[in-house]
Protein: Methionine aminopeptidase
Amino acid sequence: MIELKSPAEIGLMHVTGRFVGEVLAEVAASAAPGVNLLDLEQHARGLLEKRGAESSYWDYAPSFGRGPFRNVLCLSVNDAVLHGLPHDYALRDGDLLSIDMAVAIDGWTADSAYSVVVGTAAPEDLRLIEATEVALEAGIEAAQPGGRLGDISAAIGAVARDYGYRVNSEFGGHGIGRTMHESPHIPNDGRAGRGMRLMPGLTIAIEPWFLVTTDKIRFDEDGWTIRSADGSRTAHSEHTVAVTETGPLVLTRRPDHDPATGDAAGTPGQQAR
Structure:
């Protein structure tokens, strides 16, 4: 069942979304060579506790994974792209880090992710991150009232192909609102003009993620961390978006992020330029 949200409810989700954006920006600003992933996780926990926000990841137990998830961040490094478990690992110069977080405040959820390079950035890593961000903006632009769900998927897939990347469709975007995962599922490739009608009040998480040289994935033994099957680099970008009468409204913009340039001011981790 798909629940359309009222303008007031979207406003409450926007409150949560702003907080998610702020936390992601702060965590990314702390991601420097030598910093341990567990320290980033603890920092985020402190920010959630101070705000009174509830992690949507904590105790999450889908069909995959081994036991409930017991962290507030997904931290995926280099060839890991989704659901990376924070663990005892000190970031190294040149690491590509994807940060993903979903929380609820006063019962309303927002979910967002983005990727940065820690320290010295290789051009091919910046290009990969850029591709996910361009695809995300294309997907957002396609989320127009009266359009179709396939318009979003097709826009993301077209960007992937323009950059020379293939698309894995096993995991993608999703509805969001009172819980982290609601209907509908939003593949990262598809056909424009197909699928459900996009109605004002629909709230969705759009999340392109790409692998450099493959569209195949594998799971770590922890049952959570998803990696490229061939060990190639990966990147992931995501925003929570509301379809409104006047067009898409992004609820999780980061305070230091300019979507026109991709720049993130004051962040040690580098994004695509």
Q: What stands out?
A: Residues 258-269 have pLDDT under 50 and may be disordered. The first helix runs from residue 7 to 30. The helical segments are 7-30, 37-51, 123-141, 149-163. The two ends are 40 Å apart (CA to CA).
